[in-house]
Automatic annotation (TrEMBL):
PANTHER family: METHIONYL-TRNA FORMYLTRANSFERASE, METHIONYL-TRNA FORMYLTRANSFERASE, MITOCHONDRIAL. Pfam families: Formyl_trans_C (PF02911), Formyl_trans_N (PF00551). GO terms for molecular function: methionyl-tRNA formyltransferase activity. Gene3D superfamilies: 3.40.50.12230. The keyword Transferase applies. Residues 206-306 form the Formyl transferase C-terminal domain. This is Methionyl-tRNA formyltransferase. Keywords: Transferase. It is an enzyme of class 2 (transferase). Residues 1-166 form the Formyl transferase N-terminal domain. It comes from Streptomyces edwardsiae. Its EC number is 2.1.2.9.
Amino acid sequence: MRVVMFGYQTWGHRTLQALLDSEHDVVLVVTHPRSEHAYEKIWSDSVADLAEENGVPVVIRNRPDDEELFERLKEADPDIIVANNWRTWIPPRIFGLPRHGTLNVHDSLLPKYAGFSPLIWALINGEPEVGVTAHMMNDELDAGDIVRQEAVPVGPADTATDLFHKTVGLIAPVTIGALDLIASGRTEFTRQDRSGASFFHKRSIEDSRIDWSWPAEDLERLVRAQSEPYPSAFTFHKGARLEVLAAVVSTGRYGGTPGRIFYREGDGVVIVAGADARTGRNRGLAITRVRTEDGRELPATRYFTSMGGYLTNRP
């Protein structure tokens, strides 16, 4: 099939590479300009560079809503558009232009985790598995019929970085497998159960701020979700910002006020956590490694030279 690809960052790059390696013909690529947004500088392999290296024409747009682009798309005469990590709305006159419509590739197990940063949100929420879905685009965000979907388990120590590497490898088989089904003449696919749909917004620095009223289990997953190269989870100690690089749920139960620097346990320092911590039934968050405002990275047992005092949400 003649394919136009809409995509950005490493997800789009892997999709384009899969298309170039397939029997399908990539006739045009549309991608976003480079961004300085903290999360868009991560996994930022260039779709434009890959297309140009392979002689594929490239159009760069923030939004695909101008007449010049529409004319380019009509001239390209695609059988299908394939989109992955396109960051703005694609209007119906574009996604409905090709003979077979538009296939969107999304890194979640739709209908759950539509929208942005699905791996991070899924890890924070304790999902047992994550994956990649190829679905037909319609008027609603990430809501079209599912053509192909594959899942991988979330391990007990997995970080968001681990999940990225697990799922990015699914892009090629999910995308090309879906295209092969469409090329074979299939037109009926699996409808999404919209009663199970959930939508998530882009991550920002505010979303990495530790709230000590959360249960320790949730905070431990937040720390893993904010693994390098993502901005780290952070708190404040004596008015200074402190990044939490690694932590585990305590083995003991600790009562008191959330945020209290309480006790050394193993290789960590336990912080009281949970809105109902006063009951004494909660586990604490045992911080094992931190980074200070001046960039020093050190074990928590070295940073916290004495117990007592509090970690806070604000300076």
